[in-house]
Amino acid sequence: MNTSDDLARDLAQAYASTPEHLRQLRDRLAGTARAHGILDVAYRTIDSPVGPLLLAATDLGLVRVAYATEDHDAVLQGLSDQISPRLLNAPARLDAITHELAEYFEGRRHRFDVALDWRLSAGFRSTVLHRLPDIGYGQTASYAAVALLAGNPKAVRAVGSACASNPLPLVVPCHRVVRSDGAIGGYIGGTDAKRTLLALEATP
Amino acid sequence: MIHKQPFEAVVARHAATVLRVCRAVLGPTDADDAWSETFLSAMQAFPDLPADANVEAWLVTIAHRKAIDVTRATSRRATPTAELRETTTEPGADRRDLDLTAALAQLPAKQKQAVVYHYLGGLPYRDVAAILGGSPDSARRAAADGIATLRLTYPGVKPGTENFDEHER
Question: Measured between CB atoms, does A75 come within 8 Å of chain B?
């Protein structure tokens, strides 16, 4: 049997290329897109003690950190919808934060120095998130204390929802916000991840 | 509402097909440049593409234009003795593949493009006609003529059993 399907298959095979070659072309595209100023969002994923993390940056800075619990495909679609569909897996723009996170997980880094792009948070939630870096490494603060820091002592629940929707967990340390009664409270990456981070930071 | 997929997903899904199209039209060396130009240009314009557009047809159309650009640039650079036509040099390429690529490279341009865009690019003849000019029927005839010639010159294919309707679904 030789139908046109067979010929189409033969043609597809005759002009096929290796996965490595395609990988090289895609890497080259990421580089030229960046050089042409059309790489609106670059991302990569890394492994970490709290599971795979998705890191995404615009030309302004780190814009998103996401745990696997958030579903990375859904996060990428959200970035595409909210920022720009010109989004590529392009690790180079994430080199600095990747390095800083590695140091953090080794206990050698206590604060992050990369530029942040805050565009995914707005209003009171943004005010809350901007105050979180005031809680130092190895410290914790209650939701009520953060509400006070953010200038609205009654907004304890709003602090909780700001933390739950933090687009930059780990780097903007919502894991340091705990309940006044001593319970650990919720976390965008799950309570196990929160416990891991607090234990890491409590290690001298 | 249809969500437009991230460009990374477009690359992941169509990179191999577009590279095959570029290789079939240009040969392996120039194909890489045409592929790169195609995706760079597509990424540039991607925000303005309607979310429900046929992305593959759009990419193959861009690749067609880029292949013309690359061909023009190559012929400007070429010396009279330069060998312009290349065949695949992939390590995995066997004799049959080489026969087929050689046979395809010798087809008249319109037949070659109709075969490549329809059979490798997956475009319906309506879209092939939009790229090449002329009617869908003339695109279909060009592809059929090209396939008939390939069957005569490519030893791996026996003539007489084609079923073109398969590809119109």
Answer: no
